[in-house]
Amino acid sequence: MTQVRIAIAGASGRMGRMLIEAVLKDGEAQLAAAFDRPGTPFVGRDAGEMAGVASGVAIGDDPRAAIAAADCLIDFTRPEGTLIHLALARELGKAMVIGTTGFDAAGKAAIAEAARDIPVVFAPNMAVGVNAMFKLLEQAARILNEGYDVEVIEAHHRFKVDAPSGTALRMGEVIARELGRDLEACAIYGREGVTGERKAETIGFSTIRGGDVVGDHTVLFAGIGERIEITHKSGSRMPYALGSLRAARFLAGRRSGLFDMQDVLGLR
Ligand SMILES: NC(=O)C1=CN([C@@H]2O[C@H](COP(=O)(O)OP(=O)(O)OC[C@H]3O[C@@H](n4cnc5c(N)ncnc54)[C@H](OP(=O)(O)O)[C@@H]3O)[C@@H](O)[C@H]2O)C=CC1
Ligand SMILES: O=C(O)C1=N[C@H](C(=O)O)C[C@H](O)C1
């Protein structure tokens, strides 16, 4: 069995650490490189240190060298960093798994463009449970397509920098598509003051930030006299890391193309 050689960007970040731990425990993957931004105190230290395992791989600060050493780059950083790493992966002909959220339209277009030359999995949530919930939402929206108000509520830790979460936005997209609506036109991001009555076609988003909440998402379908709530709660970041490794294996042997976790999990 050939092992997929993995490089990890943002090695000292919350997801970077979790990914390193997952790769080191996975018999089908090999940690080829891990890197951080130059000047961070983690550069030069063993990548497995925070997982309590000696990996023999020192955290570097040269993205090009790290990506060149691997078959696949897994990137959970920030949009500006991811786009730099994406250009390098494209130049070097390497696969890439992108978990970073918060891209603008130009960033998403750059990912689609790069995927003409290299294989890319780009998904706002790598957890199997959340991807199952996307399918449940499709079905719920299909059934509750009239008379039910749709609200997406998400909660995350105090360190998260983008809102609403990428997952909440994808939930909104899935529901809007099923209802024949354009999310850009119907999304309401928070309410304040005299807002007037709720418009039936809107999809509302509410964001909570606090403490160490890993990630909770609820979609509320509220009718007159009844309501349905579909909720996913993350208790650990490991499902995101394990999903990313599944994605890296899915990309092995592919030459190009833009995929998401629905493709990886065969849910399309
Ligand atoms: N798709 C999914 O399943 C999931 C997605 N995410 C997303 O992943 C991303 C990272 O989350 P998380 O690990 O919690 O964040 P952290 O802030 O803990 O880690 C981010 C890492 O990226 C580095 N980084 C930041 N900016 C840049 C840059 N411009 N260039 C290169 N490296 C950079 C940071 O380095 P430094 O310390 O120097 O800033 C840090 O090492 C977020 O967008 C989050 O929403 C998170 C969980 C699951
Ligand atoms: O920043 C996080 O932590 C998470 N971000 C992703 C998102 O924005 O949807 C996925 C998960 O919810 C955790």
From TrEMBL:
One GO MF term: NADP binding
Domain of life according to the entry: Bacteria
Residue span, Dihydrodipicolinate reductase N-terminal domain: 4-126
Keyword NAD carried by entry: yes
BP GO annotations: diaminopimelate biosynthetic process; lysine biosynthetic process via diaminopimelate
Binding site for NAD(+): 10-15, 36, 99-101, 123-126
Pfam families, alphabetized: DapB_C, DapB_N
Catalytic activity from the UniProt record: (S)-2,3,4,5-tetrahydrodipicolinate + NADP(+) + H2O = (2S,4S)-4-hydroxy-2,3,4,5-tetrahydrodipicolinate + NADPH + H(+); (S)-2,3,4,5-tetrahydrodipicolinate + NAD(+) + H2O = (2S,4S)-4-hydroxy-2,3,4,5-tetrahydrodipicolinate + NADH + H(+)
Described purpose of this protein according to its UniProt entry: Catalyzes the conversion of 4-hydroxy-tetrahydrodipicolinate (HTPA) to tetrahydrodipicolinate.
HAMAP family: DapB
Similarity comment: Belongs to the DapB family.
Protein name as it appears in the record: 4-hydroxy-tetrahydrodipicolinate reductase
Source organism phylogeny: Bacteria, Pseudomonadati, Pseudomonadota, Betaproteobacteria, Rhodocyclales
Gene: dapB
